[in-house]
């Protein structure tokens, strides 16, 4: 008999054309994966539509911001400001002043005449990089594992508040590229999940959270940045690889839209005020000067109203990049750090004066930057920048790299508030319970002797911040390495937290924190009532090599002898619990099936409260409810994608031949059974699913956007006489600093650098400021608003059938039913608390976007005439409820 249950009705979780363009095929150069329709032309791919040397078609002019959607007021305010600016002041907004010359990782010029201080751009996606008295939050991959929108937003708001408190204007995060095409990808942990819907939701909520504090989010890296190897020529040659250009991510048009662009659409719709373009090339055109991805996709189709900033040294040209959609260059230097010249700065002034960059375009660049400031109320309470990225000393050089005057450079403002509580909570809420034989967990703390094993449980004896940008793997893995790091204010290790827990119960506790001390481990494990083995796997950014891993991981096994330690302990103790800290999947098949390993927990990259968070789960104060944000396969080959570790050409070609089939989509397609599937996670209670209802709603028919923009507006006049743009008299220059003024009235020499006089090439249409057609799939930030019309409401009942309160993440998957579509794709989820013997209604509004496919031919979304299924359950492989979408 079913228990009597109390049902709480949830607000329905919004998760994405009523026409069938059965002729989807090719449209010019963008390549179609399917090529199935009668009008298909061009490349014919048997499996997936991508190939080496695929080209990005030119798309000009660069769309001008018009104040679409909620941006109208911000554009009005920006107009009043930008209309007052001189040409040089506009150029100053667009150009970094140079590497390590000012306080922030990136800093623009200022506008002293209007008391507008420089814009400060600062890493990172887990906190504030390169300062002190800041918090270190759990990484993006942990946020994804919570499947909890509210926590994503709360974390964003807390990070935004900390950045605001230090005087930062633009936080360089969150991350949706890499998405996670390969499990070894070095920076996957900075982002969320290889599932675009889960990433899109967490990305959007993080952006809203950050921007709620008056700080612009620079959502990054746009786009196709899926591996560290060969992302930049300079890094590559440093490691002995001879490449001539950054790698090229080659992908077809459907894969772009249905996978990699998807979360960015969510980010733009959420109001992202800044987007950072990436280091790689996309279809053999540099991402930061790729008119197809910046002009056509981002500013055209997605209606992005903010600014595009280059990744650091990711700008490869001046005029070409500006015409292709780049609005700000960072850190301002040209091809190498601390070069004496810039592609922007004075070169941009020259380009505007000689007409190669139209005046409407420089106005648009300034407008996009300033509109973002007004849009997020970035001008509100704009305090001083009170820290210095290059030194933690209180006093130091004002312009670090070149020295000069010494002054106060750090106020050491403590911006942490009570964020430690949120961080601890997030750490526990993101811990995934993968195995729990006979209710091994939770522990009581009264076990007579608890033993903890592994370097990953202890501290780095040289201190938590010993290695620059966390570029080592010593002690517990609270954070991975690279620019996505921050300095720990403290790091609670599992060793210390678990010891405190046990001492409070009067129990005995011992730990062996040396992975190589196998004899000691054997002796201790034999005596222990419960053995907890901590093992990890780290990764990071390409500019730091850790244990011969060049950012991307070389394998999916545990680091530092973790597997051997685990084997040793588990051979001695029949109550061995494995706790994993890792940036992504680790191979667990052997351990999942090991009779003495009674429980497995994945704790990800949890930040400063690591030990407290894991103790909360181990000792049952938190009932785990997180789910795997990726698949744990039985072997790395099972993923079907991998890093290109050795260049295949002088311009490494990364052919995304798998199309949409990454992570669980690939496992489904090839019918490969993983060890633990995407979306899987146990609880200390159990849940059942019943009563699936699908209601078709009366949404109006999809209408492609149409019409034209207004002609490009211009906001001021300037003298075209070079003499009016020379350096002010008696101006004292800081060495290596990038200024907007000219050295000479001879425009071929006026910028004073090596780049003058190069033969110019202006792509057709690039200077055209006349009204332009609005893309069918565009018309508003994020894309055609009708994509978010709700077509169906899906409801199901989830019941807590166990004896303790718990949290479940019911998941909704859809099969779009086309011959080349994935078996199923996540389209909705909600994290819900449920009391024992109680039920909740899980409710998802299925949008038009959720069941649409991209038509390469129409360059628009459409609903295929196919049988579509909806599935509901607790993971991607446990979906007890299903129905046809009527
Ligand atoms: C390069 C990284 O790719 C990017 O994520 C970061 O924001 C910049 N460096 C600035 O540190």
TrEMBL record:
Keywords: Carbohydrate metabolism, Glycoprotein, Glycosidase, Hydrolase, Polysaccharide degradation, Signal. Pfam families: Fn3-like, Glyco_hydro_3, Glyco_hydro_3_C. Its EC number is 3.2.1.21. Residues 808-876 form the Fibronectin type III-like domain. Residues 755-779 are annotated as: Disordered. GO terms for molecular function: beta-glucosidase activity. GO terms for biological process: glucan catabolic process. It catalyses: Hydrolysis of terminal, non-reducing beta-D-glucosyl residues with release of beta-D-glucose. It is an enzyme of class 3 (hydrolase). Residues 1-18 form the signal peptide. Pathway: Glycan metabolism; cellulose degradation. It comes from the Eukaryota. Belongs to the glycosyl hydrolase 3 family. This is beta-glucosidase. It comes from Salinomyces thailandicus.
